[in-house]
Amino acid sequence: GIAMFPSDLFYGGKLLSGVSAPERRPLAGFPWPREEFPVAFVPVQGNEVDDGVSKLNEAEAAAAYDAVEHLLKGGQCRISDIAVVTPYAAQARLIRRMLRQLTHSFDGYVEVSSVDGFQGREKEAVVFSAVRSNSYGSVGFVKDWRRVNVSFTRARRALIVIGNDQCLRRGDPDTWMPWLAWADAHGINMDKPGIPRGRYEPEQLRRVRGGTTAAEMLKDVLERQQAQLKTAEKQLETAARNAAGHIIGNAPEGEAALNSDGNPTTVAAGGAIGSETTLEQALANLETDNWDDDDSDDEEDNQASSQPTLSAVSSMNDLMTRTSQETDSDGPLDAWDL
């Protein structure tokens, strides 16, 4: 069901669902395209709208509201069992405001989160809004396979994906196009519910992604973190040398000093280091730098940043080592161990 596509595309067929067979039947209330299959794609031809540096899609927000309402009326999950996940902070804010009208009579609230804020957690039901909808097939960082993987592996019993299928197919042939082909082949596209269309070949999907394994995914993340740490260490050394040179008078105010690369940097008036990036800025960039051009720094989310801090690298090394051992043994991977 839910774990089938991520397992085939991202984990070489080795990902196992953490949900037992009796629990895999779709949650009541939502009009599932196939009554025995807990995944649905809801095609919405809405319009994406710029909201500052972020984007929103009112038609998809309305569809997400309807999906949550159906699930709650089904009575098989609590309000706290549902999450709405989207790549854009503006869309998260819009959906959150809309759901307040629905959930005021319930004890609790539906969590609405950015994809990055939801990393490492799971819910019984996840509703995903892709947001991007345009005639030229631009999907931005929605095509980041890591975000797709996070979104599609955090639902335990129900996954509802909302998006403009034409835009997603055109904009991302590596991840979204295969997923939509998978949805068509299993009859879970709600434009023609229950009608399988086309063929689904797991081996072909794995060839598209080059056989990416869980260990390789973690290795990619770890290498990026280590590169960021090396950059921060280099900037720390540069800042310390420049500061020391200024203190002992080797670089008077307004004159050029040399950084660790032998390139000139200016010491500004008042003793401030006039290099292009200060130590504080470098560390701040390391803490806040996210996948590509993510805009999901939502002030209402109260979620810890998903980008690792300096202290997180050792734990990532441990995780990568453990996962590599599991992968090398050709044993199955559990979705909730990642």
From TrEMBL:
Residues 289-338 are annotated as: Disordered. Residues 303-326 have a biased composition (Polar residues). Residues 215-242 form a coiled coil. CDD domains: SF1_C_Upf1. Residues 289-302, 327-338 have a biased composition (Acidic residues). It comes from the Eukaryota. Gene3D superfamilies: P-loop containing nucleotide triphosphate hydrolases. Keywords: ATP-binding, Coiled coil, Helicase, Hydrolase, Nucleotide-binding. GO terms for molecular function: 5'-3' DNA helicase activity; ATP binding; hydrolase activity. One of its GO terms (cellular component) is chromosome. Residues 2-165 form the DNA2/NAM7 helicase-like C-terminal domain. This is DNA2/NAM7 helicase-like C-terminal domain-containing protein. It comes from Thalassionema nitzschioides. The lineage of its organism: Eukaryota, Sar, Stramenopiles, Ochrophyta, Bacillariophyta.
